[in-house]
Amino acid sequence: MIDKNKFVAVIGGRQPSPREAKLAEEVGGELAKEGAILVCGGLGGIMEAACKGAQAEGGMTIGILPGESRQAANPYVQIPIATGIGYARNVAVVKSAQAVIAIGGSYGTLSEIGHALQSGIPVIGLNTWALSKNGKQDNSIIVAQSPTEAVNKALELAIK
Questions:
Q1: Residue 1's pLDDT band (cuts 50, 70, 90)
Q2: Which of 69, 68, 73, 34 is nearest to 51 (CA)?
Q3: Could you tell me which of 91, 106, 111, 102 has the C-alpha nearest to residue 142?
Q4: Which of 17, 51, 124, 157 has the fewest CB neighbours in a 10 Å radius?
C-alpha cells in the first residue's frame, strides 16, 4: 500500500497561552487543508486546539492517550488510542509521525522533541524550545514564524 497521507504530530503543553492555542488551531487547519493526518497526545491545550482546527477543515485527527480510557480524549479527536502507559506515550506520538510541529510546551514537550530528533524525525518549532549544547546554539529545531510556514516545512521535510 502506498502511503499518500503524511502524518504530522502536533505537540505542546496542556496550558498554552491564548496566542499558542490560536497558533495550534491554525496549524491544525493548515494540516487538514494539505491532507495531512494530525497525530497528538489526545488531551487538552495545544492538542485540543490543533485537533479543533483540523476538524474544522475536514481533517483527520488521532490522539494517542496516556491512560486507559478512550473517553479521556478531547472532543476533536476522531481516532482515540488508549495506551495505559502514561508519559511513555510521548514516544508513540512522535514515532507515529513523519514530522513534528512543537508549539509552546513544557518538559513533556521537550521530551517529545528529544525522542523525535533522536529518531531522525524533523521538528519544526513555533514559539517553543530552543536548544544549546556546550554553550553553543543547536539548530536541530527548525524555527517557523507562522502556522503556514510550520506546516509547509513539516510537509516538505517529512521522512518517508
A1: very low
A2: 73
A3: 102
A4: 17
Query: If you classify domain 7-157 with CATH, what class do you get?
Result: alpha beta
Cell numbers 556546550: residue: 134
Domain limits, the chain: 7-157
Tell me, rounded to whole angstroms, the distance of Cα 79 from its chain centroid. Answer: 15
73 contact partners, CB below 8 Å, separation of at least 6: 42, 43, 63, 65, 80
Please list the alpha-helical segments (H only) found in the chain. 18-33, 46-56, 89-95, 107-118, 147-157
Q: What does the pLDDT look like over 42-86, one tens digit per residue?
A: 999 999 999 999 999 999 999 999 999 999 999 999 999 999 999
Distance CA 122, CA 2 (A): 21
